[in-house]
Write a structure and sequence with these properties.
The chain has helices at about 15-25, 40-45, 65-75, 85-110, 110-115, and strands at about 5-10, 30-35, 55, 60-65. By secondary structure, the protein is an alpha+beta fold. It has a four-stranded mixed β-sheet. The relative contact order is 0.14.
Length: about 120
């Protein structure tokens, strides 16, 4: 039977965009639920770890943006051909995640003087 997917994230690209791109590349239909920030506090207690994105697969929830991306890629034939290729993919994803962690404070800083210091 076919799985049903719902990706839940804010109305942003950010941490859900990689999974959206993987779904598109794989030609897989899914529900792309985009929350507004004011709706988040009511939803947070019902998510794994209290963070987004969340992928719902047949009603079960999976949290963690990179875990979700890896799962969807593997499930639809877009993972590595062997353990070494999977390790290389994981290495690249971890490096990307580390880079995002470093630039996120700059992107979200509202004070221009502080932003220049970062």
């Amino acid at each position: 039977s076919m799985s049903t997917y719902k990706l839940v994230y804010f109305n942003l690209r950010a941490r859900a965009e990689l999974t959206r791109l993987i779904f598109a590349q794989a030609g897989v239909e899914y529900t792309d639920e985009r929350l507004e920030f004011q709706d988040w506090p009511a939803r947070a207690p019902n998510t794994p770890f209290g963070v987004l994105p969340v992928l719902e697969v047949n009603g079960q929830q999976l949290g963690g943006s990179l875990v979700i991306a890896r799962y969807v890629a593997e499930k639809h034939g877009l993972g590595g051909a062997n353990d070494w290729e999977n390790a290389l993919i994981d290495s690249a994803l971890d490096a990307l995640s580390d880079g995002i962690q470093k630039i996120a404070p700059i992107v979200f800083e509202k004070d221009e003087a502080k932003k220049a210091e970062l």
